[in-house]
Amino acid sequence: MHDHGAAMTDPLHTLIRELEQDHTLEQPERLRERVHALDRLEDLLLHVSDARACDGPLRQRAQALHARLSTVQQRLCEAIRQAIKQGAGSQVLHGWTTPGQSPVADGYDHLDALVSDVLAFEEPTDDIASLDADMVFYQPTPARHVLDLIDRAAISDRDVLVDLGSGLGHVPLLVSICTGAHCIGIERETAYVEGARRSAASLQLDQVRFMAQDAREADLSRGNLFYLYTPFTGGILRQVLDRLKQEASHREIRLATFGPCTDIVAAEPWLVPSCQPGSDRITVFKACNA
Ligand SMILES: C[S@@+](CC[C@H](N)C(=O)[O-])C[C@H]1O[C@@H](n2cnc3c(N)ncnc32)[C@H](O)[C@@H]1O
To answer: Domain DOT1 spans what residues (predicted)?
Structure first.
């Protein structure tokens, strides 16, 4: 009979030995490698949880290693939280990006793992209201694309960014930390809004507001840069674009988009993109009938 348990413990044994010998993983700057190591450990521990052959000492070594690397992450995260509270978050967060590297489209990486800890995101425990037709479920913009948004739109502390469908608030929180801009998150799901407010309060960010509202009814008069990570499609997107066009008829505004809504926004004759529009990168549009 094939021994599944033993087969599972072998890769765990090899991994643990490899990671135990790599002391560089405890250097704070080895973020990418540490996050990858933690992911691999969690994955393997999960898979051997039912295997009777996974011996106690081996599991204890894996758990000790996981705890040690997690402690390094927690210390790093706390140092960044302190820097944010002292107004130095921008340099610290930009320091974790790879200079000159274009953000690739899909997926989350070590920067998202760090940002999620730094912003103290909580998974909402309340039931989430079901989405109406044309509404898109929650998914955060990957952190490297938020930093790309800041660069491409050259956001400064004179801007007021409005994230339409802001979820747990990644975009307003990161933009405010990195630029000092006033940021407003509009989100229909109350549990997300409450979580985003707690994240802002815990970092003493007083330039960020989160409103539990439908984007079709929200006050758009304060923003000059509106961000959409494909929060809705169809008729809702049409209504919101019409409202933004109305805003643009009497003042200067810009839109920034990410994801599939970019193609629809790019077809609006009153908007001019600052670069070739693409759904896999942030695209910034200027309203031309202002
Ligand atoms: C793809 S997520 C984007 C989250 C966030 N903007 C980000 O980039 O991290 C879309 C969000 O839009 C919200 N949403 C969908 N329809 C909405 C509406 N009509 N008004 C306000 N928020 C809406 C969803 O609840 C979800 O949190």
So the answer is: 144-201
